[in-house]
Amino acid sequence: MKLPFFLARRFVAAEDLVGTLPVLRDLQHKGLYTTVDLLGEYISDRTLALLARDAYVDLLRTLAAEYAPTGRPPNLSIKLSMMGQKIDEAFCLDNLRHLLEVARTHNAFIRLDMEGSDITASTIRLFEAVYPDYRDHVGIVLQAYLKRTRGDVEQMCALNARVRLCKGAYKEPPDVAYQNMDDIRARFTEYMQLLLKHARYPGIATHDDRLIDATRAYVAREGIRRDDFEFQMLYGIRPQTQEQIAGAGYNIRIYVPYGERWLPYYSRRLRERKENIFFILKHLVRQ
Ligand code: FDA
User: Fold this and answer.
1) Active-site residue flag, 9
2) Which of 60, 70, 124, 154 is the most exposed place for a label (fewest CB within 10 A)?
3) Could you confirm whether 164 is annotated as catalytic?
4) Looking at the 3D structure of the chain, how many domains does it have?
5) What integer best gives the mean pLDDT of the chain?
6) Residues 164, 185, 187, 253: which is the catalytic one?
7) Residue-range definition of the domain harbouring residue 246
């Protein structure tokens, strides 16, 4: 059964780029930065992976033209599993390099989203392979819930890399990931501090007030400038808080997903909060 798109509209900007551009303009008008995610993941066919790479390139060029009058560089969030990571890492590396070459010509920034723990090590390898050549154009995501992450944080601090820190959204077993929210928050806080102190322009990606407040308190205490980091949130989640954070003088970037393959992303957002499941059930019953 294909679920109707209106259910996903709260979290997904549109099913195509034409419908997404007004959303981006609106957010920018409110003083929020954006990163755009063309939805899709886990492609297992080389031809489709090349098509996905070309779709990212097209998106980059369209955003570069769209943003040209504002001077804002395009910012994309991509999934390596969409460009053949699970087929062949070397093939995926070629695709990533191809995309980053285009990114460089547009002064754009490409964030490698972090997916399931089966490809964490591969994602970090691919990032480290391209980072020396594209330091200002590529960044990675680290997930506080993974037990391996402290070592990855230290490694990224040593590289002075740009990291987005989030809790982690995939279902992982207890030997791989902390399951308890207090443990995850404690790890998040520790890594947030390390990244703010030792890495370059980290993205603190959370809607959790306790972690947002902890970040604000830490940067105030340590005298870290507001231009040296940004908050990040997902499109459709706590929009008023997003504007308040921008209004208080912090940089904040909104992750804006779009595309027809929205179901896996949408399912992760539903899983995060049981009220979302009630919302969808209510609407389906009404149909
Ligand atoms: P938490 O889930 O505790 O939420 C705090 C509050 O925010 C809730 O009480 C509620 O008010 C609101 N809220 C949060 N989620 C909601 C939802 N789905 N619906 C309605 N309200 C909600 N993960 C990953 O594994 N790889 C990645 O690459 C990324 N990338 C990424 C980018 C950005 C910009 C963000 C903000 C998040 C990610 N994530 C991610 C997702 C992240 O790992 C995590 O699953 C979500 O951010 C939810 O965790 P919070 O820290 O926001 O807190």
Assistant:
1) no
2) 70
3) yes
4) 1
5) 94
6) 164
7) 5-283
